[in-house]
Recover the amino acids of this structure.
């Protein structure tokens, strides 16, 4: 089924972004390639990353003066949505968050070189803003001044693709204030504990012990609210991705039901199962609406410097809803496939793993419900 | 348990024995919900139980079983689960043996039962095929009579433990002229017979070797391997499948998982009222299934097809509980336990993260196999409600 935008009104240009993203991702990442990548050492390959850069996807939200396309958050979300649909795992989202963090300060002027290299795909950037399961929980990682020398101590947990990154943007605390820093991932005193994740992506815990920080790497002080904004924008992007995963499950399961025969008839003719796939379809529609609302809320967060808590709530509502709906749809998808749904060779289980991951990251459904009602 | 005065003593002797004799290595694999428990370990445990005469808990005394009543059997299974001991060898001990006792020839009893009892032979179940799952009777894998041999061609799908089994029992098409339930024959065969090929099917959870597709090319087996009459295997299969109905609810395993979650929640989930509410709801639902199982086993009238609801609700709650466990572990549960580096890097206080996601994903299967949830509902609708 084509994803119909109901709340988002897309321009012709945006529709083109979406269609060309889907075309390219379909072509470059057939299921067999994805499977190979997720079992490979790094989880992703440099050639594909170059391609993303050539398409302008990495700099989509950056101004043209910095080598970007000057596109909106919605534009970026349309690309990421298609990555959900095709189940492509890459550092794409964390790179965008990293770039946003970097440009949060005077348009990243002190780091134009890094920015340009990231946008052209020559340097990998990631972002570690949370240390616990509660997104935006105050950082424990400490920035300390000792004899005119800045030192960093602490640990960031499950930082996306940190093992594959050259630079990491992190938050740290100094005298009760939060700062954002950019740290070279290969500096002495940085220790990476890499993880391969069930959904095929990669993360790492990063330990900092007495890491020397030059003045230039301290991007600036940042309020907790601004850190939260960065996370909210990322979460809204994830919602677009997850709702697209749900549609993919819906499509594939429906197709399967039409072709799989038991008792001399296709499964799709059994009313008990028709109702089940209808439930799945309905969840996809509801999730789609929530995701679109979330990305619009995130866009207004991007465009307005003042914080409006209503936007935050819209994003939390979407995250909580899609978190649960996604897991439901994943489980139904597998069940309706029967035994074949359990196999590694069918995409369905892999979508379910991704949706399970989605529900946990950046605050689980329970956390977002609390924030919504609070 | 008031009707069974001695049961407490029995229970504690079982508990004691498990505690003292279950090898650590095995306990660890069971705690981690591992599916691919090595054959040697399974055998070793079976023989440890067999020393007490408990290896084949459901068997009557005349075949060398303990001859327990339902209550003893029930208590035994519970202690096994709560003590983190592995499930008993379901295909040989639990399925084939009772079927042979009922339908097998004297020679088959002599040949097959002692080898199951001593864990010399591991069995697998060749029922499902690519085209025959819920609609099992539509199976097509042929066995053609040629002198005093059957010649088998085709394939069986989803065969659990097919890669470690010595023998298979299965259903084969010997006649396709009549109703699909007619013309099915129950045969046993040697897994290393020429023409048998076993291909592992990887599952999306990466739980290791568990299920297989087994191919047959002109596999010849003696006619004496047939159980019961030719073409009449369907009723034997129905009997065999009915043996699955109680154990598959796995109430005791779920009780054990709940204990583990509570342990973890004490460390990890303080002050999360939402989680607590979910956990409590699951615990109460499990209690409802537990009591119903008890009622159906020991109530005034022994349950027939109604017992389908135990499989239906038992596996549903089992999956709910595993999902809760997964959530209780938190984000580290998302690491891929197939990757040794990832497991090594885990924080020390979270060993559960090394296995829970895999178990959570893998156990979706319990609502699919041994008669899917939908099939159980069909059974209840037809055989119980009469519609
Ligand atoms: C891990 C695992 C281990 C297994 N081990 C074994 C084994 O050792 N030996 C063996 O023989 N088999 C084994 N099986 C096979 C298992 O029994 C089948 O998967 C099961 O019977 C379902 O069949 P299917 O997979 O072909 O699904 P299908 O029958 O194609 O069903 C697909 C979906 O449609 C539903 N459905 C089908 N018909 C109806 C209907 N009439 N009304 C409503 N809903 C319906 C099903 O419930 C399911 O949700 C195993 C399966 C798994 C996943």
């Amino acid at each position: 089924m084509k994803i119909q935008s109901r709340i988002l009104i897309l321009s012709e240009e945006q529709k083109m972004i979406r269609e060309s993203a889907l075309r390219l991702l379909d072509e470059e990442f057939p299921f067999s390639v994805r499977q190979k990548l997720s079992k490979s050492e790094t989880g992703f390959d440099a050639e594909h990353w170059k391609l993303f850069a050539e398409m302008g996807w990495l700099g989509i939200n950056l101004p043209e003066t910095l080598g970007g396309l000057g596109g909106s958050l919605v534009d970026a979300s349309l690309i990421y949505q298609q990555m959900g649909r095709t189940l492509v795992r890459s550092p794409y989202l964390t790179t965008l968050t990293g770039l946003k963090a970097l440009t949060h300060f005077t348009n990243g002027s002190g780091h134009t070189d890094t920015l340009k290299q990231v946008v052209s795909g020559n340097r990998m950037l990631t972002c570690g803003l949370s240390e616990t399961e509660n997104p935006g929980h105050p950082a424990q990682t400490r920035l300390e001044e000792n004899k005119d020398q800045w030192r960093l101590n602490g640990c960031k947990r499950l930082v996306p693709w940190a093992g594959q990154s050259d630079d990491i943007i992190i938050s740290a605390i100094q005298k009760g204030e939060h700062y954002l820093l950019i740290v070279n991932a290969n500096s002495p005193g940085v220790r990476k504990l890499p993880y391969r994740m069930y959904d095929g992506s990669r993360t790492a815990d990063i330990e900092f012990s007495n890491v020397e920080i030059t003045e230039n790497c301290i991007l600036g002080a940042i309020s907790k609210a601004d850190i939260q904004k960065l996370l909210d924008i990322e979460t809204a992007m994830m919602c677009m991705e997850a709702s697209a995963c749900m549609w993919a499950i819906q499509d594939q399961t429906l197709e399967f039901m039409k072709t799989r025969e038991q008792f001399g008839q296709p499964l799709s003719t059994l009313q008990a199962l028709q109702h089940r796939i209808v439930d799945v379809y309905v969840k996809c529609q509801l999730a789609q609406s929530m995701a679109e609302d979330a990305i619009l809320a995130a866009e207004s967060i991007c465009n307005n410097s003042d914080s409006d808590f209503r936007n935050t709530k819209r994003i939390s509502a979407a995250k909580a809803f899609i978190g649960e709906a996604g897991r439901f749809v994943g489980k139904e998808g597998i069940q309706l496939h029967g035994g074949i749904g359990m196999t590694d060779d069918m995409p369905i289980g892999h979508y379910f793993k991704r949706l399970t991951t989605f529900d946990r990251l950046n605050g689980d459904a329970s956390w977002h419900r609390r924030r919504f009602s609070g | 348990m008031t009707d069974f005065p001695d049961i407490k003593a029995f229970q504690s002797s079982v508990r004691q024995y498990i505690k003292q004799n279950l090898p650590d290595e095995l306990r660890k694999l069971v705690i981690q919900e591992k599916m691919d428990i090595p054959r040697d370990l399974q055998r070793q445990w079976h023989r440890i139980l067999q020393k007490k005469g408990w290896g084949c808990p459901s068997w009557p005394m005349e075949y060398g079983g303990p001859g327990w009543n339902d209550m003893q059997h029930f208590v035994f299974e519970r202690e096994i689960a709560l003590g983190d001991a592995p499930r008993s060898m379901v295909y040989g001990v639990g399925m084939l043996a009772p079927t042979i006792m009922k339908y097998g020839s004297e020679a088959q009893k002599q040949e097959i039962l002692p080898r199951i009892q001593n864990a010399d032979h591991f069995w697998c179940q060749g029922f499902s095929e690519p085209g025959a799952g819920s609609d099992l009777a539509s199976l097509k894998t042929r066995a053609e009579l040629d002198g005093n041999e059957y010649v088998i061609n085709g394939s069986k799908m989803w065969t659990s433990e097919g890669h470690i089994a010595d023998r298979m029992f299965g259903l084969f098409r010997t006649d396709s002229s009549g109703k699909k339930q007619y013309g099915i024959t129950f045969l046993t065969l040697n897994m290393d017979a020429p023409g048998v090929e076993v291909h592992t099917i990887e599952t999306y959870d990466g739980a290791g070797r568990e299920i297989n597709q087994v191919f047959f090319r002109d596999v010849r087996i003696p006619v004496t391997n047939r159980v019961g009459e030719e073409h009449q295997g369907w009723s034997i299969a129905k009997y065999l499948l009915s043996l699955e109905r109680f154990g598959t609810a796995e109430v005791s395993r779920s009780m054990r998982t709940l204990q583990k979650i509570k342990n973890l929640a004490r460390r990890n989930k303080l002050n999360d009222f939402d989680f607590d509410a979910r956990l409590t709801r699951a615990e109460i639902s499990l209690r409802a299934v537990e009591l119903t199982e008890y009622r159906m086993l020991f109530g005034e009238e022994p349950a027939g097809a109604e017992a389908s609801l135990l499989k239906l609700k038992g596996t549903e709650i089992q999956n709910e509980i595993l999902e809760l466990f997964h959530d209780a572990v938190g984000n580290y549960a998302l690491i891929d336990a197939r990757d040794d580096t990832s497991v090594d890097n885990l924080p020390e206080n979270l060993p559960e993260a090394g296995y829970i996601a895999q178990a959570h994903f893998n156990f979706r299967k319990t609502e699919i196999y041994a008669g899917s949830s939908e099939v159980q509902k069909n059974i209840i609708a037809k055989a119980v409600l009469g519609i």
